[in-house]
Design goal:
Helix content is 29%, strand content 39%. It has a 6-stranded mixed sheet with strand order 2-1-6-5-4-3. It contains 3 helices and 6 strands.
Length: 119
């Protein structure tokens, strides 16, 4: 049996938190100064989300999940190694294929930088 790496576990936890809409647990995956850069929003006519810091992640997703009345539906999750995951996320009536890359993590096992790109 292949042992999961910490990066793979972080990716799985990220997807889980996004799937259930838990902004607090999502933010806890990030370092105090961690960065979340999400350009998938461009596909729905919104600006890129660039968040710096755990608190920024928590606040943004508190608002996102609140305005969305819960989590954004995520389907067809496919892990591409330990640092990348592909999935479909639904924004309203628009389904966007994306790629999330865990670019860097701290020695403590927290996300230092996560990049999300539309496919």
């Amino acid at each position: 049996m292949v042992k999961k790496t910490k990066k793979r576990e972080l990716l799985e936890q990220f997807i889980h938190c996004m799937t259930i809409g838990n902004n607090v647990e999502l933010a806890d995956l990030f370092d105090k100064y961690g960065v979340l850069h999400d350009s998938s929003q461009l596909k729905i006519g919104r600006d890129t989300i660039h968040l710096e810091g755990k608190m920024a992640v928590e606040m943004m997703y508190h608002n996102r999940f609140g305005f969305n009345r819960g989590p954004f539906p995520i389907t067809s999750v496919e892990y591409k190694g330990d640092e990348m995951v592909w999935y479909f996320i639904t924004y309203g009536s628009i389904i966007v294929p994306v790629c999330a890359i865990l670019s860097d993590m701290t020695e403590e096992g927290l996300i230092k930088r996560m990049n999300i790109y539309p496919l």
